[in-house]
Amino acid sequence: MSYAERKFVIVEMSELTDFDYAVVMEDNADTLRKNLTGTHAVLKYEGRKPSALYGKTILNYAEIKALLATDEWRDPDPPQE
Questions:
Q1: 8 A C-beta contact, residue 73 and residue 36
Q2: Is the Cα dihedral 13, 30, 52, 2 positive or negative?
Q3: Confidence at residue 75, expressed as pLDDT on a 0 to 100 scale
Q4: Burial of 13 (C-beta count, 10 Å sphere; 0-12/13-18/19+)
Q5: Ramachandran angles phi, psi of 34, nearest 5°
Q6: Average pLDDT, the chain
Q7: Residue 34 in contact with residue 41, Cβ under 8 Å?
Q8: Rounded CA gap, 59 and 52, in Å?
Q9: How far apart are CA 1 and CA 33, in angstroms?
Q10: Which residues contact 15 (CB under 8 A, 6 or more apart)?
Q11: Closest to 13 in 3D by CA, of 31, 28, 34, 27
């Protein structure tokens, strides 16, 4: 599937304590895209919505790209290498 067909969900990190990563495309908490405060993360999946994500808002690719471009998710002054 292409990125355009993937679905994305924002979750609180506290919800992922015993999360089954087999139902999403991430492997574990270390591979998640987190906001700058580390309180929320992005999960992505293809196909049917996993039951663990019921009640969560689904974002499409364009929506998640726009969200990740906000100051909450992107450091406006990243460290220089």
A1: yes
A2: positive
A3: 82
A4: middle
A5: -110, 155
A6: 92
A7: yes
A8: 16
A9: 20
A10: none
A11: 34
Residue 55 and residue 64: Cα distance in Å, rounded?
A: 18
Give dist(CA 15, CA 77) in Å, integer: 29
Tell me if 12 sits within 8 A of 39, measured CB to CB: yes
CA distance readout (Å), 12 to 9, 51, 80, 81:
10, 16, 29, 30
Please give the structure tokens belonging to residue 29. 């908490």
The verdict on pTM exceeding 0.85 is yes
- Can you list the positions of beta strands (E) in the chain? 7-12, 33-34, 40-45
